[in-house]
Amino acid sequence: MKSERIKTDILIIGGGTAGCYTAVTAAENSDKQILICEKAHIKRSGCLAAGVNALNAYITEGRTPQDYVDYCVKDAHGIAREDLLLTMSQRLNAVTERLDREGLVILKDEQGKYVARGNRNIKINGENIKPLLAGMAQRHPNVRVLNRVNITDIDVTGNRINGAFGIGIDDGTFYIIEASAVLIATGGAAGLYKPNNPGFSRHKMWYCPFNTGAGYAMGIRHGAEMTTFEMRFIALRCKDTIAPTGTLAQGVGAKQINALGEVYEHKYGLTTSERVYGTTAENSAGRGPCFLRTEGISEQQEQSLLKAYLNMAPSQTLKWLESGELPGKSNVEIEGTEPYIVGGHTASGFWVDTDRATTIQGLYAAGDVAGGAPQKYVTGALAEGEIAAQAMLRYLDGNKPAGISEESAVRHLSEAERFLDGSDSPYSAEQLEEAMQTVMDSYAGGIKTNYRFSEKSLGIAEKRIIQLEGLSDSLRAKDPQELMYIYELRERLTVCKTVIAHLRARKETRWAGFAGNTDHPERDDEHWNVFVNSRFENGRTEIILRSVSKG
Amino acid sequence: MSIEINSQKCVGCGKCRDVCPGTLIALGRDGKAFIRYPRDCWGCTSCLKECPVYAISFFLGADIGGMGGRLHTEKEGDILKWMIERPDGSVTVTEVDTRESNKY
Ligand SMILES: Cc1cc2nc3c(=O)[nH]c(=O)nc-3n(C[C@H](O)[C@H](O)[C@H](O)COP(=O)(O)OP(=O)(O)OC[C@H]3O[C@@H](n4cnc5c(N)ncnc54)[C@H](O)[C@@H]3O)c2cc1C
Ligand code: SF4
Ligand code: SF4
After folding, report:
1. How far apart, in whole angstroms, are the C-alpha atoms of residue A442 and residue A472?
2. Mean per-residue pLDDT for A430-438?
3. What residue ranges do the domains of chain B occupy?
4. Do A319 and B65 touch (CB under 8 A)?
5. Are A125 and A311 in contact (CB under 8 A)?
6. Fold held by B3-97
7. Fewer CB within 10 Å of terminal CB in chain B, N or C?
8. A444 near A137, Cβ under 8 Å?
9. 3-class state of residue A246 by DSSP
C-alpha cells in the first residue's frame, strides 16, 4: 500500500451534517487549514442522503430554549444533560435562518414567518439539504475535502490527539493525517442488531447503514469516556419501507390503533419510547398488528403525503402506488425497528463538555456521535458543529500539533496490509456481521425478544461478541472496499461490547419501549436517576456513574 | 430493495458512483456503471437523482412487499418528476416542485 502523510490544523472525520457545518464555521472565522475526510462523498453522504421531512428542533414562537430543554429531559425520562441541551437550543433558530438564507425551502405564512408543525418543528422541503450543506463547505478555499477516505483510527498519546489514519477506498492509499484539533462527526451506529428484514432488503433500515459506529469505536479504543449506550433508539416506522410515521401522525393526525381498531396510544403514554412500547405491548397481547389510522383522509391530503414521502422516503410512495393501497383507503401498518445507537435521538455517545470537547485533549464531537443531548436532529447537529468549531479555534491558539510517530503509523499500516495479504479466510465480514446481529438480536434485547434481555442473556451476548472479535482477526479482503467492511465490522463489535456493558450496568427499566431489563423490570429513581458512563481501560469496560443534576 | 442500472442508457459519467453514500456503485470495464453490492442499497435514491440520462431505477424487494414496480425520476428545471411503472406497463407520474415545502 502506498502511504501519504498530510498535515492540517483541523481534521473533521465525517463530512455529514455536523462535519460540514463545523467546516463552514471554522472557515468563516479563521484562515486555518481544515480537512474533511469522508468515507463516501459529502454531497449525499450520511443521514441526509434521501432528504428529511421537517426541521425537528426549532424554538417556535412563544417558546424558549429552556422549554426545548425541558421537553428533551422529560422525553428521555430524566437522563439528559441540561447544559448541553441549553447551549444547543440557544442556537437552533440561528442555524435555521442560515439554511433559509442559503436556499433551503422553508414554509412561511403571509407575514414571512415559519409555519410550525406542532410545538417544535417547522416544515421544509428537505430533499436537497445535504447538497446545500456540502456546497457551503466546499466554497471556502481553506476547506479541503478528501472523499472516499475511510478513517479507521485516531492517534492519541498521553490522552492528547495527534491525528488519524485512513484508507482511500479506490486505490487503497494509506493516509497519516496529523492535526492539532480533531472533530469526530461520524454519526451513530446502525447494523449492530438484526434488522427488520434481514434478507435482500437488509439495508432498508431507518438509520443510515453506512454509519457504522466508527467514531464511537475509535473513542472507546483510546479510553474516551462514553455515556448512556444503554439508551438505544428504536424507531416506530411504517412496516417494510421503514419510512417515518411522524408525517402521518402530525401531518394528518393519524392515531395509533391496534388490529381491533382501538386507539391505544394514550394507554401507554406519548414519549418517544412509550409510543414504541405501546406498539410492542399490543402485539404481545395478541392485538396486533398495529396501524396508523389514515383511512378516510381527503384526496388532497393523500396527494400531499405522496409528495412529502418522495422528498424523504421514496420507498413509501412507491409502495402505496404499486400496491394501489393508498393511505386514504388502507391504514398504514407500523412496527418498531431494530435498536440503534444514535446520540441525536437518545443520549448515547461521547461524554463532552459544553464546548463539545471529549475527555481526550484536542478531540471534539458533534452530532449523532456526541452524547448527553438527545433530540438534537439536523439543527442540533449544526448547532453542535458551530460550537465545536469555535471551541477548536480557541484550542488551536495554544496548542501545536504533536505529530504522529513512525511506529504508530507503521503499526496501523501493517494491520491494513495483513487484512489485504491475499490469503484465504474461513469467514467473510458479511458472515461475521450476520452472526453479530443474530447474537445481539437474541441476547442483547433485539426485535426477537421485544427488546428485552436479562443478566444471563447479556452474559451470553458478551461471550459470543468476544469470540467474533477473535474471528475477525482472520478476515481477509480482496480490495479496499472489502477492507473497509472488515473495519466496519470490528467497529460494530467494539460498540456492541460497550452496549452490553451499559445494559448490564443499569439495574432498572427506564425506557420500557427501548429496553426491558427482565431482572429489574421497574424504573428505580432512587438509585438510577444517574448517567451510566464507561471507559475502556486495560482491556476492560469500567462503569462510572455520574449524577444527573451536576451534568 | 435496490436499484437497477440500464446499461443501454448509461453513458458512464460516474456521477452515481461518486454520490452513493455507501460507495456501492462501480464502473465496469465497458465503462458502464453497475451496482456491486445490490443488497447493501439503502434506497436513498441519490444515484437516481444524479444520473443525467435517467438510467437508474429503484425497486422494493419482494421481502418488503415489492410487486415488480419501478421508480424513476427526471428533473425539469425545478420540477422533480417521479414515475412509478408497474409490471402491466401503467405509469403514475407525481410531480414535486422543489421550491415548495412539504405540507406535513
Ligand atoms: C432516515 C432519517 C431521517 C431523518 N429525518 C429527520 C428530519 O426529518 N428532521 C430532522 O431534524 N432530523 C432528521 N433526522 C436526524 C438527522 O438527520 C441526524 O440526527 C443528523 O443528520 C445527524 O448528523 P451527523 O452529522 O451526526 O451524522 P451524518 O450526517 O450521518 O454524518 C456522518 C458522516 O460521517 C461519515 N462517516 C462515518 N464513518 C466514517 C469514517 N469511518 N470515516 C469517514 N467518514 C465517516 C458518513 O459517511 C457521514 O457522511 C433523520 C435521520 C435519519 C437517519
Ligand atoms: S439508492 Fe442510494 S444507497 Fe442505493 S445505490 Fe443509489 S445512491 Fe447507493
Ligand atoms: S449517473 Fe447514469 S450515466 Fe452516469 S454512470 Fe451512473 S448510470 Fe451511467
Report:
1. 20
2. 98
3. 3-97
4. yes
5. yes
6. Alpha-Beta Plaits (3.30.70)
7. C
8. no
9. helix
CA B55 to ligand 3 center in whole angstroms: 7
Q: Which of A169, A229, A250, A497 is nearest to A368 (CA)?
A: A229
Task: Look at residue A239 and give its three-state secondary structure.
Answer: coil
Which atom of ligand 3 lies closest to the CA of B12?
5
Task: Tell me the average pLDDT of chain B.
Answer: 95
**Grid cell listed for A420:** 489485504
Structural domains in chain A plus CATH codes: 3-187+342-406 (3.50.50.60), 236-336 (3.90.700.10), 421-524 (1.20.58.100)
pTM to 2 decimal places: 0.97
The yes-or-no verdict on residue A551 having pLDDT over 50 is: no
Which A residues 321-350 touch B at CB under 8 Å? 321-323
List all residues of chain A from 186 to 205 with a beta carbon under 8 Å from chain B. 197, 199-205
- Cell numbers linked to A302: 393523500
Distance from CA of B21 to the nearest CA of A (A): 4
Distance A325 CA to ligand 2 centre (A): 26
Which residue(s) pair with A189 in the sheet? Answer: A212, A341
**Cα separation of A526 and A448, whole Å?**
31
Q: CA triplet B50, A124, A139: central angle to 5 degrees?
A: 55
Could you tell me which of A7, A10, A12, A14 has the C-alpha nearest to residue A45? A14
Of A337, A260, A249, the C-alpha closest to A293 is A249
Written as one letter, the residue type at B24 is L
Grid cell 438505544 is found at: A232
Nearest to B19 among A41, A115, A200 (CB): A41
| Helices marked H in A159-271 | 214-221, 246, 265-268
pLDDT in tens, A104-147: 999 999 999 999 988 899 999 999 999 999 999 999 999 999 99
Global ipTM? 0.96
| DSSP code at position A251 | I
pLDDT at B14: 98
Taking residues A543-547, what's their average pLDDT? 97
